[in-house]
Amino acid sequence: MAVSESGGLVDGKIVLVTGAASGIGRAAALLFNREGARAVVVADIDVDLVQETAELLRADGGTALALPVDIADRERVDAMIARTVAEYGRLDCAFNNAGVAGAPARTADCTDENWHFVINVMLTGTWLCMRRELQQMLAQGGGAIVNTASVASFAASPAMPAYTAAKHGIAGLTRTAALEYVLDNIRVNAICPGATMTRMMRDNAGAAPGMLEQIAQSQPGRRISDPLEQAQAAVWLCSDRASFVNGTLLTVDNAATVGGTMTHSERADAEGS
Asked: What are the structural domain ranges in the chain?
């Protein structure tokens, strides 16, 4: 296990990261390892890429377990937590990061299929993960959960009704659980990323000539976040250094929500998990 010279933020912890095949999830998995995690369980629906993440962790001196998981599937989520506990005995930190953007359309034009796809993965899937994580953490006496919400958790995103509803919902789940379990030694927080250079961003925005530069220039800081910058916030929130931080929606957006310069399409295309 790789540990930073000053002592790892999550020394000896058992960590779970969903959406770990790429982007913020992969960056977080690698950082958890470098900050001293005893083992990192990486889960994603993309079997090949999540295995690649596990291989990167092992190459960096870590212990990793890769699990193919669709977080919208309750049985697969339950099996994910059960396998984690069977392998390592407990679950100290969970980063619920998996998500999808869905197809852009105004509310009246959003299809049933798109609505249910986005809500099932992002909102129901996050709740399914939280439910099992909370049950395990209650049984073992504590833990820390971090969800990936969004700057879209605070504002409307025209043409992205399901996405916006899901991100608002994740914010509500985060705050509700934080209040419910504050006396059980369980902290629940969320990061709210702004524009971040993920695979989702490249797939959605990168196809249009000049779109990535346009998104960068729309930001107050005139740049797009690296996934590591989001991962650093998530790892810190999971750590004991954030022991009095609970129920927080931490914006990691370089003042984008303050400046309000990002359009709805740029926000939805830019984020990614």
From this structure: 14-270
pLDDT tens digits, 104-129: 899 999 999 999 999 999 999 999 99
List, for residues 5-59, the tens digit of each pLDDT value. 457 999 999 999 999 999 999 999 999 999 999 999 999 999 999 999 999 999 9
Cα–Cα distance between 76 and 49 in angstroms, integer?
18
Check 88, 127, 163, 236 and give the catalytic one: 163
Homologous superfamily in CATH for domain 14-270: NAD(P)-binding Rossmann-like Domain (3.40.50.720)
**Other CB atoms within 10 Å distance of the CB of residue 183:** 7
CA distance 109 to 189: 33
Name 152's Cβ contacts closer than 8 Å, sequence gap at least 6.
160, 163, 164, 167, 168, 267, 268, 271
Q: CB atoms < 10 A from the CB of 156, how many?
A: 10
In the residue annotation, 181 being an active-site residue is answered as no
